[in-house]
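Incident review: delayed structure delivery

Summary: a single-chain prediction request sat in the queue longer than the usual turnaround. Root cause was a stuck worker, restarted by the on-call engineer. No data loss occurred. The affected request and its eventual output are reproduced below so the record is complete for anyone auditing the incident later.

Affected input:
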Amino acid sequence: MTHPVGGGAPGEEPEAPATVDAGDDLAGEPDGFQRLWTPHRMVYIQGEDKPAGPAVELCPFCRAVGGDDAAGLVVGRGRTCLALLNKYPYNSGHLMVVPHRHVADLTDLRDDELDELNRMTRTSIEVLRAVMAPQGFNLGMNLGQVAGAGIAAHLHQHVVPRWTGDANFLPVVARTKALPELLADTRARLAAAWPSAATT
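Output delivered after worker restart:
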């Protein structure tokens, strides 16, 4: 028996929802485990829309800079940086603060960009606290592919809200996150709470 637990991404055609399978009608010996089927994540595994090099036209962050806020999952904009939701979040509310310029390294930022990136990181924490009441945060950036950067060509600072019990068996054993809210709904709530003076 299967139960739907998810849906499509914002701005995309509806897709088959993720389902939990009790496992009692599968081939083989029952093992007592349920399966959470998340076929929509295959596009992430296969690297869809992931830039292969430094080309700006292939960069999803550069597209977000010049694009529609809802389509790009943008929560707040500043003069030199913006904050947007991660399309493949570690947790609900996982934000990234991104400079407008297509630069790969922290040392490539001008002083004004570095200043705004830090202030928008602070604003991200304040907004997430107000809207989602997390108990803690992980902050950081991975510089270079070897350091784990998924999009190494465009610098981005992660702001990941954390709650007690969010790192349970599901992500540890099954490499799967259960996210209780659609990205479009999370974006709308965070954008509504984002201050108009985004970098103060």
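Verification: The beta strands are 2-4, 19-21, 35-37, 74-77, 81-85, 95-99, 136-140, 157-162.
Action items: add queue-age alerting; document worker restart procedure.
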